[in-house]
Amino acid sequence: xxxxSSVMGAAIAVITIGSKIPEAHGMPAPPPSSTRPGRQRLxxxxxxxxxxxxxxxQRLLVAALLTLxxxxxxxxxxxxxxxxxxxxxxxxxxxxxLYGGPPAGALSAVLGVLLANAPIxxxxxxxxxxxxxxxxxxxxMHLATQFVVIGSIGLMQRKQQSLQAAHEHARKSQRHFIxxxxxxxxxxxxxxxxxxxLRVNQEFCKxxxxxxxxxxxxxxxxxxxxxxxxxDEALIRQAFAGQRDSYTLEKRYIHRDGHxxxxxxxxxxxxxxxxxxxxxxxxxxxxxEVKATN
Length: 294
Hints:
This protein is of the alpha+beta class. 56% of the residues lie in helices and 14% in strands. A five-stranded antiparallel β-sheet has the order 2-1-5-4-3, with helices on both faces. β1 and β2 (197-200) form a beta hairpin.
């Protein structure tokens, strides 16, 4: 049985990891979003935006153009003494940071202040006072405000990138889990504490002769001879009592057509994040032929 043990041990190790994925095989899919498809796609594109996908020179060029546009709007629309004199430049810095990340936002903020105080801006745009201290204070506060906003945008983008990476890792792990679960040469099932079959793979279905839909409405007791149930349930109680986390036994299953088959059952207890028993992972190997030769 050394060959069987190695196969089962490897399968349980992989499936225990994969079973922690919420979207794993057999679990209900999340409800569809109520957001309109067009808005949802636009919002998702915004969330998925990664400035690093574009070359740095392109991002800086866009930031410079946005800043020049803001300077023009500032000179044309908002007089230097109006309450909206800071708005165009702040908006340009925000858009630059969203598009090109913190470097582009910082360029827009600094370039905006320099251009706003240049002679071509007329009236100094940002400042209308000849008091140097007050002028430096106004410009300094304006830059500080923009850098706070740009820094917040940078943190948001970094967090979003981390979430995307984690989501992609989870999707790959899910695909790996499903492939391992479904393509395993051994029968695999996830069993609740009361014996309900929560998940079964095709090999297990083939082994006992039932369809997946039928098995998911059954308990393992329904396909186990009465003489073998007590030993199985005793081991389950020990696992729930913390006396063991896994066990192996030889038992029989009742095939759908009525004949008995011998199996080697390797069971591991899966716990949730709080360490509470959640379900059992069972790896089943048909040993009927081995038993027949002994």
